[in-house]
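dumping this here before i forget
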Amino acid sequence: MPEQEEKLVKDAPASAPEAQDRIKAVPRKAVLKLHRFELAAFGAASVNDAYYTHLAGSGSILFHLHDAFALGVGADYLYAHPRGTNVDVVRFSLTSVPAVYELPKLFAHVDFFWTPIYGKVSIFDDAILHFDFYASMGGGMAMVSSDHRMPAVNLGVGQRFFLSDWIALRWEVRDHLFVDDQEVNGLPRSDVQSYVMFMLGASIYFPFSFEYSYR
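structure:
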C-alpha cells in the first residue's frame, strides 16, 4: 500500500470508520488466459431430437489471442444414436412417414470464441469460485462417411468454472447446422439438419502458470 494511503488509514479517527472504508481493494483476475493454450474434452448428448438421442465425445484445442478472444479447432465424434419410443409410435400409428437419411459420424470445425463476462461467486463464505461466460461460432464439415461430407456451421454458448490456475470445469450448448439429402416416399429432398448438443467437460491450460503484467 502506498505511504499516503497508509497514513490516511492510520490517521483516521476511530469514530469515523467510514473514512477507512474509502480505500477499496480491487482483486485481480484469478486466472489469465492470454497467450495460453486450452485443451478441452467433453461428453455430449443431443437435446433437440424427439426421435433419437445422439451421443458424442468431443475435444478441442484453443489458443487465446487475448483474455477475451480465442481461436480453436474441434471435433465431435458421434458414437451412438439410441432410438426413442416416439419412432415406434409414429410408425405403428401411421401418423407420419419417416425420412430415410444417414446419421453423421463426425463434426470437425474451426471456431472463434468471445468471452465478454467474467465474475466470481462466494461458496458458503469459505471460498470464491471464479467463472466466465463465452460465445462461439465456427465452420467446418459434417461427415457421414469418408466420401460423404457436407459444409457445416455451428453456434454455441458456455461457461467455465476455474478450479486452479490451469484447470477449469466447462459446460456448453452448441448447435451444429448443415444441409443433408433425405429420401421421403422414395423421393429425394434436401433439408437443414440441426444437432443441438449439451456438453459437459473440463479444460487444461498450457503453460500451467502465468504472470501478471503491469503498465
